[in-house]
Amino acid sequence: MQITPPFGYREIVPLQRQMAVRLPAPGELPHFASHTSAVPLSYAEIVPASRDYPIAFASGADASTFTVVAVTGTARGENLFVRDGRWDAQLYVPAYVRRHPFCMARVQADNVDPSQRLVCLEKSAIVGSGGERLFDDAGKPSERWGPIERFINEYEADLERTREMCALLAEYQLLEPFSLQARMPAGEISLNGLGRVDERRLEALDEAQLRTLLRKGILARIYVHLVSLENFPRLLARKARVQAAAVREAMQAAA
Question: Nearest CA to 102 among 172, 192, 181, 24?
Fold first, then answer.
């Protein structure tokens, strides 16, 4: 059996009814949250996330597929919204972070439909004792599992809508790469590898293409994305505060 873990997950296995699972405590973050500079977003999240983060497009490994991300840092391995293991409580926390340790993944095995996605979880969340059984001995789901399963399935369906949107933007050739350069007190920074919608290409679309974007709700999300780019100055201001706090802590430690 072969399973490719999603970004940020280490090793995942299919969920089985006899497993005892250690569920995260309220506010507890997965290991990858504090050092990811871009978090994937689903279709429904674009609007609420745009209030707090710049929304951009990240290309896949083959540079022909894209995903929507909330930009959370200006350097690799940096999340400016996590402090002391906690996400800023005043801001929206992406569902990609909240669904951990669970996920949906395709499993490659002789007896499994390759198009089928199975509920999986981080292997380290399986515990021998002290964990929670999500199913009883008869296979009946617990009350705790119902909302978790619903959240996982709804999120996966919403991700499919995101994939459809990104595929359509790529088909219409609306995405262009962009970079960000800024001078900070601790030195210059450069943010590369992201994409945004080119407004000139958007204006050049024909009536049928615009109608398709409007009917699918994508046009509204394009404009939300473009407005969210104004959050980059706020991201840089947060970076400056984090750097200043690090300097103060270093000086106090040296005193």
Answer: 24
